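[job 0412] stage=complex_fold ligand=NAP status=START
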Amino acid sequence: MTTQAVAQASGTFAIGGAPTVNRLGFGAMRLTGKGVWGPPDDHDECIRVLRRAVELGVTFIDTADSYGPSVSEKLIREALHPYPDDLVIATKAGLLRTGPDEWQPMGFPAYLRQECEMSLRRLGVERIDLFQLHRIDSKFPAEDQLGELAALQREGKIRHIGLSEVDVDQLEAAQKIVSIVSVQNMYNLSMRSAEPVLQACEARNIGFIPWFPLAAGPLAAADGPLQRIAVSHGATPSQLALAWLLKRSPVMLPIPGTSKVAHLEENVAAAEIMLSDDEFDELSAAGSAG
Ligand SMILES: NC(=O)c1ccc[n+]([C@@H]2O[C@H](COP(=O)([O-])OP(=O)(O)OC[C@H]3O[C@@H](n4cnc5c(N)ncnc54)[C@H](OP(=O)(O)O)[C@@H]3O)[C@@H](O)[C@H]2O)c1
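[job 0412] stage=complex_fold status=DONE, emitting structure tokens
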């Protein structure tokens, strides 16, 4: 397999029937300053990360207007525009930023619309392939928030609608209003509370996008719970954590985040690791014990 095709080894998933992406994607939240606030320390390395991701066959990039805010989307455009035909950029709306590490839900429909308009402009696209509601805001009726997204979809500004951090009841209620093609919840080898939502997604062929696939670092650490097994498999802990996710479900679309090319290359190489059932079970036990 050529280096260009590494991510293809993870298999493909058709989001909402189309477009089809390679399942191992990239999360662009880490291309920002401390606290996901402001520019990254090393702008040029972040540009290299994005270009290298595409070279390695990544066709699915996750971002949000709130990452920076605006920083991540602008870097994606700077690094990759004009975009390859097969690249799918998923962005999100529904969170206000008031400072480093501060995130407030904001589901006022007109604000969601403004976020969409600004993301279209920043990304330099006529239509957003996947627009995710970052959080359902309890201050406003969910019908109004999803209704605004449905209106944007009818107007051709967004292609598909996804949710983030929802439970099964919220997913089912949302599906009565709009067609939901993806759910993005926290999930990894050592944090599996979203299992019922994952199972609901599997039953409906909805893409499940696990955020914190590396538990934001510990699952990639040399002294973490996967180190011993990683050594015996000739892989790194991060690669095993990602290979485990890919094997867990055909609807799984991991989006590991990094600001470093070396980490990106290590993570994308996980696409080529095919775990046996025994290896999967061993990792499952190690993850729940860690
Ligand atoms: N929907 C939501 O509410 C939500 C919330 C959080 C995140 N997300 C999305 O999910 C994506 C993934 O989550 P995440 O970025 O927070 O967590 P993650 O992918 O689990 O971990 C990223 C962290 O691990 C480090 N890392 C990555 N690869 C590594 C490697 N091979 N070796 C050692 N360290 C490594 C990164 O640092 P370096 O930069 O130093 O590599 C970074 O600090 C985000 O980028 C974002 O797109 C969504």
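Residues 238 and 270 are 8 Å apart (CA to CA).
[job 0412] exit 0
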